[in-house]
Input
Amino acid sequence: MATTYTWIGTPGVALDGSIPLDWTPSGPPQDGDTAILANGGTIDIGNGQLVSNTVSLVSGKLVFARDSRIAIGTPSLDEQSLLTTFTGTSTVEATTIDALGNAVNAGTILANGAAGSCSKEATSIRRC
Output
């Protein structure tokens, strides 16, 4: 059964997204789960992969970096995953998605962030 996890890691600090105590309930999210990232922290996916996940990035930064296993057959976001940077809340904060290193998106990214939001690709092209 899918579970919804909320990131409670330290705001403003880059942390590995696989630390169980940085999620409530204790996590991290597994395949098919939903993750809500709303406290302004920086979550580093590292060698992680989103498989049939729904991720709502309300505030903060989501980083895909240093993943040597990523390829077309094993994308960072699989075709069943959805990453959105806007959840319809009245106080939306700036969000950033960094794909620095190997990152392959086969899923859906709906980027509709607040002023100051942007995405940064491995080519260092910044779209703000």
In short: The longest strand covers residues 60-65.
